[in-house]
Design brief:
Layout: H1 8-23, H2 29-36, H3 40-52, E1 56-57, E2 65-66, H4 68-91, H5 96-106, H6 112-127, E3 133-135, E4 142-144, E5 149-151
Antiparallel strand pairs: 1-2, 3-4, 4-5
Length: about 160
């Protein structure tokens, strides 16, 4: 059974099932359809395909659960989504609704090594005592919270020297 080749849509279903399993004791196809704003027939087709790949346990009129392999993939997708969402909202200052949309799109295609750099940079922006900046539309490039103004370069945090 080949489980590694999934479409973005199939990954979205796994991620949705993962989050619903965390919220509810029982996940029904109707719950998935409601969350994803799709038709029940679409959910049925996707669940059959995912069950065929060994990623979920699915039978008509029964709860849907992730297999161990499905859980590993779903956790990875959810982790990417959360990391991207955090980066967009907390580091780049993008509105949550727009950031959510881009995180959903990018989570399917961003390689792990690039995502790790996003995460390391986000951690750097939060933990460096001198670097307390966030990107936003400005002539200078970023807003330094520590200095309370837009700045092109900060000697204290050496933003331009950051390498991961």
């Amino acid at each position: 059974m080949k489980t590694t080749e999934l479409s973005a849509s199939q990954e979205d279903y796994l991620e949705t099932i993962f989050f619903l399993m965390q919220e509810e004791a029982r996940v029904r196809p109707k719950d998935i359809a409601d969350r994803m704003k799709v038709r029940a027939a679409s959910v049925t087709g996707a669940l059959k395909a995912l069950a065929g790949k060994g990623l979920i346990n699915y039978a008509p009129y029964a709860s849907v659960t992730l297999t161990d392999a499905g859980r590993i993939i779903a956790e990875s997708i959810a982790s990417k989504h959360e990391a991207l969402l955090h980066f967009f909202t907390q580091v780049l200052g993008i509105e949550t609704s727009e950031a959510e949309e881009f995180a959903c799109t990018m989570e399917h295609s961003i390689p792990d090594h690039i995502l790790k750099r996003f995460v390391r940079f986000a951690e750097y922006t939060e933990k460096c005592p001198s670097f307390n900046a966030s990107w936003r539309e400005s002539a200078e490039g970023y807003f330094c919270k520590a200095q309370g103004r837009d700045v092109p370069h900060c000697e204290a945090c050496r933003l331009n020297d950051f390498k991961s």
